[in-house]
Write a structure and sequence with these properties.
By secondary structure, this protein is an alpha+beta fold. The longest helix has 42 residues. It is elongated, with a radius of gyration of 41 Å.
C-alpha cells in the first residue's frame, strides 16, 4: 500500500495539544465556572432560573417537583449530570449560603451543619419573589438570545438582572488556570454604592467604602482586616479574616465559651468534631506517653472540663456550641487556641474575577477579567442602561404600532357613515379594505384593523374611550422618546428602581467589621507588675506575681513554686514586668516574641500551660533562653553563649521586627546548643563559667558585633567532657553568685577574676566534690538585689543577696537551701533593686 500520491498534513503535536487545551480551558471558563459581571450568574444558575421562568414557576404559583425542573434544564439547556444541576439549584435556596436566595424550596434542602438535601423526587421549588427582578422585562428583547447546545431552543445569553446580584450574593468558581471568589455584600449598601457611582463616576474606592464598608455574610460573624478589603476594592484581590460570634460567660463556679455563630461556609458540626479531635489527640497522646512516664501537656485537656463540649443547636439557634472550662483556665487563651487550631477563625481571599463583554464585539463575546469594585459597578450600570434602553425601544415600538392602528380607526369614526356604507356595499373583504384605504387614506394594516373591530366600538362611550386612549398613548410615546434622547432620565429610572428593590428586599447588616488584628493594643489595660516567668522541661509555661513569694533567710526550705508532673523539672526562670517583651530563643537558633502579659497568669502551685499554645514552634524545637526587653535600643547588644563555649554579639535593634513564626537569631554549629543570652555593651567584661567550675573573663570589646545569622567566635577552650553552663556580664562593685546542684553557693567579688584573652583555658572558680555537686548557674548580683532559687521539683525560694556569704574565688561555698530527698537546685534568677532596674 502506497501513500506517495496521497496528501499528508503534517502538524506539530505540541501545538495541537496547546490549541486543544486552550479551547478546553476557554470553554470551562466561559461556559461553566465563572459568573458574568452583569447578572452575577454562572451558566447553570442562569439556565435553572430561565427554565423555571419558562415553566411559569413564579413566586405566586404553587411549588413543583425539583425533578421536573432538573429534567427541563438538562433536556433543553444544560447537557450535564442531573446531580450537578440539582446541587446548583439547592445552593440557590440556602439562606446560609446566599444573602438573597433566588429559589424558594419546599422540603429538605440541606442545613448549615452539612446535611445533604433530600433527593430531587421529594423536594419542590418555585422562584423567589426577588428573582422577578433578575428576569424582569425578559420578554421585551432586553438581552440577546443564543442557540442551545443542539440548536433546537433559544436561551438568554445574560439575564436583565435589575439588582446587582454579583455583589449581593457573591460567587465562587474554579476554572482552568484561574478562579473567582467574591463574598456576598449587603443589598442596601450595594444599592447605595451603585447610586453614588452613578451620581459621581470619578468616585474613589475609599469613598465607596464609606457607603459599602465590606462584605456582609448571610449569618452573623466578625470580619477583621479593613486593609485587605480596601486592597480588594482597589485591585480585585485582598485577604481578610473571619471569626465566629463568641461570648464568654463567667460565674463563680465556672467559665463557659459559647459559640453563637461560625464564619461563612464553616460547618458547625465539623467545628465541634475538630474541637473533640483536639481533646482526642491529647487522650491518645497520654496513653502512648504514659508508658514511658513522660507526659507533655498538649491540647484542650488543660482547659476544658471532661465532657465539657456540647452542641445545643436547634431550629431557632442553628449554632449554639458550649465549651465549659476548668476553673483555672484563661478563656482568652482558650479562644486564641481555638482561633489557631480550628475554623472558628479563617481567612477569606477576595478574587474578583468575572466574565466581561468584549469591547468592540457583539454582546455574546466575553473575556475573564480581574475587576475592582468600581469596575464591577460600572459594568453593572452599563448593562442596566442597555437593558432599560432596549426595554424603552421595545415599548416605543409597541406604542407606535398601537397608535398607528388607533389613528386609522379614529379616521373611520370621524366619517362613520361613509365608512359603514363602503363596508356594506363591498362584496368581499379585499374590496372593503381597498375602499377604506382609498377613502380614508390609510394603509392595509389600519384597514384590516377597522374591519376586525366589533360593532360595539361604534357606541359613543366606546368612541370616547378610544380617543382618550389615543391621547394617552401619544403622551407615552413623547415621554419614551425624551428618555431615549436624555441618558440622565434613564439613570434616574435605574436609581428609582434600585431604591424600590432596596426598600422591599433590603435587610440590616449582619457582619461586624473591625480593623486588622495587629491594630488591637490593650496594653493600657495591663498593670505593669513584677512577675516570675517559668518554663519546665516538658514545655509548661506560666506567669506568677513576684509578690506572692515571701523572702526567706539562707538555708530555708522554700515554698511550692510550681506543681510538676512526674519526670518534669524547671528549666527557665525569669523575672520581668508585665509589659516587657519576652524574646524566646530556641535550640534551633530561632527567636520568637511575645508580651509578658500574653502568658497565662497562674497561681504559684499551678502547672501552667503548654508553650506551644503561645508560640508557633516547629517539631523538636524547644526554648533554650529567655530575654526580657523593655525597649529595643540601637545602642544595646545581645550576647549569645553556647554550651561549646562560642560567643556572639548582635545589635538588639536587629530583633525589633520578629514574625509570628520566628526568625533566625544564631547559626548553630553541629553538636552545639544555645545556653543563654543577655543584654550587654562593649565596655563590659564577660565571664563564662563551665559545669566543672572553670571560668574565663575577657573584655566585651573583644567580640565584634555580628549579624543575626552568624555563628559567633570561640570564647573558651574547654576540657574534655566539660560544657559552659552560665555566664555573667560585669557591673561595678558587683559580685559573682555561683550555685551548685546540691544547694551550695557563694558570692565572690568580680574584681578577683582577672581579665584574660578570649579563647583561653580559664581558671578555677570553686572546689567541687560529691557534697556540693556541679555548677548549675551564676549571676551578677548587688547586695541590694534579691535572688530566686528553684529546684527541679518546683520548690521556689526568694532571698536577699546580702544573705549569701562572700568567699574567695576557689572556695567551695556554703549551703544556701535545704533540699528535700531526691531534689536538686536547677535554676537561679536575679531580681535587681528597683532603682537600678528602672535606670
Amino acid at each position: 500500500m502506497s501513500f506517495i500520491n496521497e496528501k499528508v498534513d503534517y502538524q506539530d503535536m505540541p501545538l495541537i495539544f496547546k490549541d486543544a487545551f486552550l479551547d478546553y480551558a476557554m470553554s470551562v471558563i466561559v461556559s461553566r465556572a465563572l459568573p458574568d459581571v452583569r447578572d452575577g450568574l454562572k451558566p447553570v444558575h442562569r439556565r435553572i432560573l430561565y427554565a423555571m421562568h419558562d415553566l411559569g414557576m413564579h413566586s405566586h404559583k404553587p411549588h413543583k417537583k425539583s425533578a421536573r425542573i432538573v429534567g427541563e434544564v438538562i433536556g433543553k439547556y444544560h447537557p450535564h449530570g442531573d446531580s450537578a444541576v440539582y446541587d446548583s439549584m439547592v445552593r440557590l435556596t440556602q439562606d446560609f449560603n446566599m444573602n438573597v436566595p433566588l429559589i424558594n424550596g419546599h422540603g429538605n434542602f440541606g442545613s448549615i451543619d452539612g446535611d445533604a438535601a433530600a433527593a430531587m423526587r421529594y423536594t419542590e421549588a418555585r422562584l423567589e419573589k426577588i428573582s422577578n427582578e433578575l428576569l424582569r422585562d425578559l420578554h421585551k428583547d432586553t438581552v440577546d438570545y443564543e442557540d442551545n447546545y443542539d440548536g433546537s431552543e433559544r436561551e438568554p445569553h445574560v439575564l436583565p438582572s435589575v439588582f446587582p446580584n454579583l455583589l449581593v450574593n457573591g460567587g465562587e468558581g474554579i476554572a482552568v488556570g484561574m478562579a473567582s471568589k467574591i463574598p456576598p455584600h449587603n443589598l442596601k449598601e450595594v444599592v447605595e454604592a451603585v447610586i453614588a457611582q452613578m451620581e459621581n463616576p470619578v468616585i474613589t474606592a475609599e469613598e465607596l467604602m464609606t457607603i459599602m464598608p465590606g462584605p456582609d455574610f448571610p449569618h452573623p460573624c466578625v470580619v477583621m482586616g479593613k486593609s485587605g478589603i480596601k486592597e480588594a476594592f482597589n485591585t480585585g484581590r485582598g485577604v481578610f479574616k473571619i471569626r465566629g460570634i463568641v461570648d464568654v460567660v463567667s460565674t463563680k463556679k465556672k467559665n463557659q465559651i459559647i459559640i453563637r455563630s461560625v464564619p461563612y461556609q464553616v460547618n458547625p458540626e465539623m467545628l465541634v468534631k475538630r474541637i473533640y479531635e483536639l481533646q482526642g489527640e491529647w487522650d491518645h497522646y497520654v496513653k502512648e506517653r504514659a508508658k514511658k512516664k513522660k507526659v507533655e501537656r498538649n491540647g484542650l485537656i488543660d482547659f476544658v472540663e471532661t465532657n465539657g463540649i456540647s452542641n445545643q443547636a436547634d431550629r431557632n439557634n442553628p449554632v449554639h456550641i458550649i465549651i465549659t472550662l476548668k476553673k483555672e483556665a484563661d478563656p482568652d487563651l482558650v479562644l486564641n487556641y481555638l482561633y489557631k487550631k480550628t475554623d472558628l477563625e479563617k481567612s477569606f481571599g477576595y478574587n474578583m474575577v468575572a466574565l466581561v463583554p468584549e469591547k468592540g464585539k457583539d454582546t455574546i463575546s466575553r473575556v475573564p477579567s480581574q475587576l475592582s469594585l468600581k469596575e464591577i459597578i460600572a459594568h453593572y450600570i452599563d448593562h442596566q442602561v442597555e437593558v432599560l434602553t432596549r426595554s424603552l425601544q421595545f415599548d416605543l415600538k409597541k406604542q407606535e404600532e398601537k397608535m398607528h392602528l388607533l389613528s386609522g380607526f379614529i379616521k373611520a369614526l370621524d366619517d362613520i357613515d361613509e365608512t359603514v356604507r363602503i363596508i356594506r356595499e363591498s362584496t368581499n373583504k379585499p374590496e372593503a379594505m381597498l375602499g377604506l384605504m382609498n377613502h380614508l387614506h390609510i394603509d392595509e394594516i389600519q384597514a384590516e384593523n377597522i374591519l376586525d373591530r366589533k360593532l360595539q366600538t361604534l357606541a359613543n362611550f366606546e368612541q370616547d374611550k378610544l380617543r382618550l386612549e389615543h391621547e394617552e398613548r401619544g403622551k407615552e410615546i413623547i415621554l419614551i422618546k425624551e428618555k431615549l434622547e436624555n441618558p440622565s432620565l434613564i439613570h434616574e429610572d435605574i436609581k428609582e428602581t434600585l431604591k424600590s428593590i432596596s426598600s422591599q428586599y433590603g435587610k440590616p447588616r449582619q457582619t461586624t467589621l473591625t480593623d486588622d488584628i495587629e491594630s488591637f493594643d490593650d496594653e493600657d489595660l495591663i498593670t505593669n507588675d513584677d512577675v516570675v516567668v517559668t518554663i519546665t522541661h516538658d514545655g509548661l509555661i506560666k506567669r506568677t506575681l513576684e509578690s506572692t513569694y515571701r523572702t526567706q533567710r539562707r538555708k530555708g526550705i522554700g515554698v511550692s513554686g510550681m506543681k510538676l508532673l512526674e519526670d518534669d523539672f524547671i528549666r527557665h526562670l525569669h523575672v520581668a514586668k508585665n509589659k516587657d517583651t519576652l524574646l524566646f530563643f530556641t535550640n534551633q537558633g530561632k527567636v520568637y516574641k511575645k508580651k509578658v502579659y500574653e502568658i497565662s497568669e497562674s497561681t504559684s502551685n499551678n502547672r501552667g500551660t503548654n508553650v506551644e499554645l503561645l508560640l508557633d514552634l516547629e517539631h523538636d524545637e524547644r526554648i533554650q533562653a529567655i530575654l526580657a526587653i523593655r525597649e529595643f535600643s540601637s545602642s544595646q547588644k545581645i550576647l549569645f553563649v553556647t554550651k561549646n563555649g562560642h560567643v556572639k554579639k548582635t545589635p538588639l535593634s536587629a530583633f525589633g521586627n520578629i514574625r509570628q513564626n520566628g526568625i533566625i537569631s544564631i547559626r548553630m554549629k553541629p553538636q552545639d546548643s544555645l545556653i543563654g543570652v543577655c543584654l550587654t555593651s562593649d565596655d563590659r567584661n564577660i565571664t563564662l563559667v563551665t559545669r566543672k567550675a572553670i571560668s574565663i573573663t575577657f573584655e566585651g570589646s573583644s567580640i565584634r558585633p555580628m549579624s543575626r545569622t552568624a555563628a559567633g567566635l570561640r570564647g573558651i577552650r574547654l576540657n574534655e567532657g566539660d560544657t559552659v553552663v552560665s555566664f555573667a556580664v560585669h557591673e561595678e562593685e558587683a559580685d559573682l553568685f555561683v550555685a551548685t546542684n546540691q544547694g551550695f553557693g557563694k558570692r565572690t567579688p568580680l574584681g578577683e577574676f582577672r581579665v584574660q584573652k578570649r579563647a583561653g583555658k580559664g581558671v578555677r572558680i570553686a572546689k567541687l566534690n560529691d557534697k556540693n555537686g556541679e555548677v548549675i548557674g551564676t549571676l551578677t548580683v548587688q547586695e541590694e538585689d534579691t535572688v530566686m532559687l528553684m529546684t527541679k521539683n518546683g520548690t521556689l525560694m526568694k532571698m536577699k543577696a546580702e544573705e549569701l556569704s562572700q568567699f574567695g574565688r576557689v572556695a567551695q561555698g556554703t549551703k544556701i537551701i535545704n533540699l528535700r530527698d531526691g531534689d536538686e537546685l536547677s535554676v537561679i534568677a536575679r531580681i535587681p533593686d528597683e532603682e537600678e532596674r528602672e535606670s
